[in-house]
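can u do me a favor
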């Protein structure tokens, strides 16, 4: 088999097992190179599953290698030089010339023997067999997640599917490596910041792909996500257990329903009003039952009864209950057992918890901690003023830049004033893992606001500090 055919067969075998070969083909990695790669190398190149790595190594080992005369190494002893054949025969006849590893079975003489015992882990989603790598001890076993920027939703779901929720929860801390679209690793050492950034991107994608519109959201059913909803619940648990993170745009009423509580009619109605556009809210507030826009609203929600002042509150609650509770009921049935098993949150305290996580100016100002010196006073005033005049979207970007999370997950965000040798190098620098924001000295608030606003608007932040 010549080299092109060998590569084609190798890539075809990998694709049959569902392994993406794009990176292998781009880097021109074939069977010979794979035979020299470690498990970590194969994981980095897109083979995270243990069974796939074993199958690939087995396939590589079965490929004939060219011998001294260009023939296959499996061609038989007749292709070897005669002197080498004679040497082999001599060693076979004389036991003293044999290698020590071929003399007897030393393992049979051992009094103590070791056995590796496997175990099954049930994380509430599925039962998974846990296997250890032969070259690692139990203390050295750890999970390293390789996530691709822009594909975090798919990657985290796959990680939960492969490793299981319980296994990921046991990793303290969970090591995450972010891969840029060009294939280069972000130069960031994760002690929480990279994971928080990944969780923020995950739920941002979730709300875009499979949720309703509005200020707050509920999941929306999709036919292609039947097997994905349970994985989303596991990621929600992973985010809260490891980082105290919850997606703040999920309605509290829906989460209370998942946790086994019956939300109050007031909470359901308030959640629904936040889910509809501002124009529709204005129509409902006017209470003009003959208004054409009001009639269109009723038709949109399939209201078939005559609405008047006496029954309007009841009708509005029925509409809200249908949208907030009934329509995403399938998702709640899938999420419920997982959340109730792993989230130690009382439904009554959920509202207070979600309020504390909200990216609002008030919550951000509570966590800012400044150095106690005269040089920090002007910058602290600038930053407080900047936060107070920030919209919810800018508050989210500020938190994402400073902590990696778009929610308030830390009790303190330290602010330090630093000096830069050049104005060209001057810019705010955030250390997301340590909850530290470094600010340069600015001569005026206008200058500070302009640079910080442009930085947050850029939406291109690469973690490049180790």
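np, heres the sequence
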């Amino acid at each position: 088999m010549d080299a092109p055919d060998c590569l084609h067969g190798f890539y075809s075998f990998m694709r049959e097992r569902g392994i993406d070969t794009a990176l292998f083909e781009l880097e021109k990695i074939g069977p010979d190179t794979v035979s020299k790669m470690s498990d970590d190398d194969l994981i980095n190149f897109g083979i995270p599953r243990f069974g796939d790595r074993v199958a690939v190594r087995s396939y590589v080992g079965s490929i004939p290698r060219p011998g001294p005369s260009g023939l296959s190494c499996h061609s038989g002893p007749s292709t070897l030089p005669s002197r080498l054949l004679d040497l082999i025969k001599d060693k076979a006849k004389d036991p003293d010339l044999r290698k020590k590893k071929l003399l007897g079975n030393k393992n049979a003489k051992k009094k103590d023997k070791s056995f590796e015992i496997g175990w099954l882990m049930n994380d509430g989603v599925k039962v998974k067999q846990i296997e250890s790598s032969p070259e690692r001890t139990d203390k050295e076993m750890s999970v390293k997640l390789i996530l691709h920027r822009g594909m975090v939703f798919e990657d985290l779901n796959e990680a939960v599917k492969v490793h299981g929720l319980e296994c990921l929860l046991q990793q303290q801390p969970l090591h995450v490596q972010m891969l840029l679209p060009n294939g280069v690793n972000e130069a960031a050492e994760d002690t929480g910041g990279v994971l928080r950034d990944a969780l923020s991107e995950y739920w941002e994608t979730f709300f875009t792909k499979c949720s309703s519109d509005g200020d707050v959201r509920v999941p929306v059913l999709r036919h292609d996500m039947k097997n994905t909803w349970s994985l989303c619940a596991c990621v929600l648990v992973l985010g809260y257990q490891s980082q105290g993170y919850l997606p703040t745009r999920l309605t509290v009423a829906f989460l209370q329903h998942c946790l086994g509580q019956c939300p109050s009619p007031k909470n359901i109605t308030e959640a629904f009003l936040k889910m509809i556009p501002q124009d529709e809210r204005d129509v409902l507030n006017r209470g003009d039952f003959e208004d054409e826009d009001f009639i269109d609203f009723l038709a949109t929600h399939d209201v078939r009864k005559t609405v008047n002042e006496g029954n309007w509150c009841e009708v509005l609650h029925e509409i809200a209950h249908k949208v907030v509770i009934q329509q995403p009921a399938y998702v709640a049935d899938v999420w419920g057992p997982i959340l109730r098993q792993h989230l130690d949150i009382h439904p009554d305290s959920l509202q207070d918890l979600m309020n504390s996580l909200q990216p609002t100016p008030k919550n951000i100002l509570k966590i800012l901690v400044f150095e106690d010196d005269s040089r920090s006073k002007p910058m602290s005033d600038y930053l407080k003023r900047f936060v107070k005049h920030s919209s919810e979207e800018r508050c989210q970007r500020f938190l994402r830049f400073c902590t990696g999370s778009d929610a308030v997950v830390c009790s303190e965000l330290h602010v330090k004033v630093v000096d830069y040798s050049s104005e060209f190098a001057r810019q705010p620098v955030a250390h997301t893992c340590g909850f530290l924001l470094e600010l340069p000295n600015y001569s005026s608030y206008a200058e500070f606001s302009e640079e910080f606003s442009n930085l947050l608007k850029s939406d291109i932040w690469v973690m490049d500090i180790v």
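Strands lie at 119-122, 127-130, 144-148, 175-179, 368-370, 413-418, 429-431, 436-440. hope that helps!!
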